[in-house]
Amino acid sequence: MRPNYGWLDPADTPLALGALAVRLARQDLAPLALDSARIDAALAHRYDLTRSEAEEMRRACEEVAAAVPPGSGYSRLVAQHVAADERDAFARCLWREARRPAADPDAARTLARTFGLPETAFGAVGRA
């Protein structure tokens, strides 16, 4: 039985985006170097959460990510059902938490593609 991905309650946006981040981290994308602590920090920053609230949310995101079938279908669904400005804002929080954001343009493109953003979305981020 497959979950119904036909709609997304706006209140579930942080969970959907966090699950996407967890999936990205599980791909072992070395240049981006996302781990649980960095995902927690991005969730806390974007959604004004305490450390423990962010950790709890990330654990819920991990459960969602584990339930989603493999492949890029989930990324496409998030891109279709979550506003671009929400996807962009959270992806930028993740980018800021990445270990070497300015060092690898491939990591920037991968992050942008994963969140359904233009591949050039992070061109200026990290070059402050």
UniProtKB/TrEMBL annotation:
The Co-chaperone DjlA N-terminal domain, residue ranges: 15-98
One Pfam family this sequence matches: TerB
InterPro entries linked to this entry: DjlA_N (IPR007791)
This protein's name: Co-chaperone DjlA N-terminal domain-containing protein
Organism: Roseivivax marinus
Lineage summary: Bacteria, Pseudomonadati, Pseudomonadota, Alphaproteobacteria, Rhodobacterales
